[in-house]
Amino acid sequence: MTAAASLGPSSAPAPGAGEAIVRTERLRRTYQMGSTDLTVLRDVDLRIKPGEYVAIMGPSGSGKSTLLNLLGCLDRPSSGRYLLDGRDVSRLDDDQLSTIRGAKIGFIFQSYNLIHQLNIIENIEVPMIYRGLAEAASERRARELAETVGLGDRLRHRTTELSGGQQQRVAIARALANDPLIILGDEPTGNLDSHSGAEILDLLDGLHAQGKTLVIVTHDDQVSHRAQRVLHMLDGEIERIESKGP
Fewer CB near the last or first residue (10 Å), C or N of the chain? Predict the structure, then answer.
């Protein structure tokens, strides 16, 4: 099964089409450490168009995870603006940010962040339940997504019965549950062996081929080889941008 073939049709825009759905203007994040201000992100300007596959790389402390948290509406900038799908989300309150996350953003984490008391179907359903989708519809959608990521034969297994690669497949299916505008990944292959990591990257390639917008923080050179653009960060700034395709 190839990832691109298994993902089915998508209503997402073709890669490179339309205006930027992610736009940051002089984005800055500063934390107060006692009497000292620590700036970890410095005046970042960024544009990401629908359907792009972007990797963010850099050494520890370079600001890449902070940038991802801001793009994912998990944190707010200290200054600057962040426009997501044309809306300035920089100063929204917690409830508004939560609504934005549920509707427009899918997350894939290094540690999977699954609920071990739930089975595969139930884990995939969680974002849909939060958005108020009817139980029958959410279960049907969860089954479809489980099939999409190659877990159709393990629907009632709990996450503790799965390998790391299978757990990350569940996490990808969950990220797709509400058909997000953008998918953010934080080291999605970081806990996987090379074979499982390659399978996950094939799935991400399939999502990209279907028009999904991907932004992945990674140390994995294999991710950067597959991405269209690589943002190299250093000391809280985008040091350089490597463009690798249309």
Answer: C
